[in-house]
Write a structure and sequence with these properties.
The protein is built from twelve helices and 17 strands. 30% of the residues lie in helices and 23% in strands.
Length: 384
């Protein structure tokens, strides 16, 4: 089951994307199944507080305001007085959660950040507000009541904060109580607030920072910076200039139209989104140093990396393939298409299967160096 389906279960992905994504909040009951306990717990929280330096990641909120970071040193006292404890980017601190986020990021193609919220009975950390990104609320422990209202400003960007607007003067279109294992999806721009009920509440906020048309244009600008005509100084406004500013702008607009109309523009941006992401947990020592890879010889078992989307481009002129995984990029030459198809369609495989896929290749001379390179480049992993 994919990471996104795990998040939405039992709602079908297609139904969610068609009717709810960026449009409307959705409450999903876990039906009593504490399915997110593997991601977080009170025990994990205490381990983070006891054994990690969290000053940069910690925030405290009281009555809708975030306290000065200097107050974090006295976080326990503030919690005793009802402050909401927040730990940002907690997915970088908890391996199981980090692996899930990597798989989800690979599937959806947009950046993700997970924050932890710890609230106390009867307390409301933040006033009614909206976020500039889509969020999934994963209830870990305790109960929390949520109210979600319609948006008053469609699709706000990062700089268009809710502090600059007034919440709607109407009843919420969704009121729900989250219990452990429940999920609440809130689109960006939709006003909301929450109140912990009779027990302390732990929840994870999985924020999806979806790319927009503005992001696409910013990427295109970076691409255009490589072209001399776009780096050239525009004409002076002096009437003596041989070419007027208007003529120069018209020429650039024509060039821009041709550039944006290129048939592979969408595919190039898709590849950019895939390669712009650095996997959270892609290390596997000592194998990636080239040591102890083939302890079991041809019976060694391998698996594809799940830390990012793998993109494969055929290089017909070079008789090879360019393999991209996040920031990693390698070129494989002189290997048959059937091998590439078999390799990247299998979740796991053994040395014996590789031999069957490459019947004309020698194990020691050809296959071992090939697999070693793929392991060292973090494309495949030794399955322990």
């Amino acid at each position: 089951m994919s990471a996104l389906q795990q998040l939405l279960e039992p709602v079908e992905i297609g139904h969610f994307l068609q009717d709810f994504w960026t449009r409307k909040s959705l409450f999903i009951s876990g039906k009593g199944n504490r399915r997110f306990d593997r991601f977080f717990s009170w025990e994990i929280l205490n381990d983070l507080l006891n054994y990690h330096e969290l000053e940069a990641a910690m925030r405290l909120a009281v009555d809708g305001k975030v306290l000065d970071p200097q107050e974090n040193a006295n976080f326990l006292q503030h919690c005793q007085n009802g402050a909401t404890l927040i730990i940002d980017r907690v997915h970088k601190l908890v391996p199981e959660l980090g692996r899930f986020v990597s798989q989800l990021r690979s599937q959806i193609g947009h950046p993700i950040q997970v924050n932890l919220y710890c609230s106390w009975p009867g307390k409301q950390g933040f006033r009614c507000h909206y976020d500039t990104h889509d969020v999934f609320i994963l209830q870990i422990d305790g109960t929390k009541e949520w109210n979600v209202f319609t948006d008053t400003f469609k699709y706000p960007l990062k700089t268009q904060k809710s502090a600059n607007f007034q919440p709607p003067n109407e009843l919420p279109y969704l009121n729900c109580i989250l219990e452990p294992g429940d999920v609440l999806y809130i689109p960006r721009g939709h006003w909301h607030y929450a109140l912990a009920l009779d027990r302390p509440s732990l929840h994870l906020t999985l924020g999806i920072h979806g790319k927009t048309g503005i992001d696409f244009l910013e990427w295109a600008i970076e691409e255009l910076k490589q072209q001399e005509s776009w780096r050239q100084t525009l004409p002076l406004l002096a009437t003596e200039s041989p070419v007027s500013l208007s003529q120069s702008i018209d020429t650039l607009i024509g060039d821009l139209t041709k550039y944006l109309s290129h048939s592979d523009m969408g595919d190039r941006y898709r590849r950019h989104l895939q390669t712009a992401y650095k996997p959270i947990s892609g290390f596997d020592l000592p194998h990636q140093v080239g040591i102890d890879i083939f302890v079991k010889g041809i019976d060694t078992k391998f698996k594809l990396s799940k830390e990012g989307a793998i993109d494969i481009q055929e290089l017909e002129a070079e008789n090879g393939y360019k393999i991209t995984l996040g920031h990693q990029e390698i070129t494989l030459k002189g290997i048959p298409k059937s091998f590439v198809r078999s390799l990247f369609s299998a979740d796991t495989f053994t040395g014996n299967e590789i031999i069957a896929w490459l019947p004309d290749y020698d194990w020691e001379i050809d296959i071992v160096p090939l697999l070693t390179r793929l392991v060292k480049e973090r494309i495949i992993l030794v399955d322990r």
